[in-house]
Amino acid sequence: ALAACLLFGAGEALAFRAQALGTGLNPYYYLMLPYVVTLMAVAAMGRAVEPRDVGKPYARR
What we know:
With 61 residues, this protein is mainly α. The protein is built from 2 helices and no strands. Helix content is 64%, strand content 0%.
């Protein structure tokens, strides 16, 4: 979770930096940048491997 927060913050800082440089893009693209970076990171992480015993009933001994 900490890495995700840092990634989002880095995306937001990059958006402010790019906006300050005056690249000429629509300002809404800069506001969208942190969310796009976060979505790309989530997509790159892939799917989590579930535990082997998921779905098996628990029997107390």
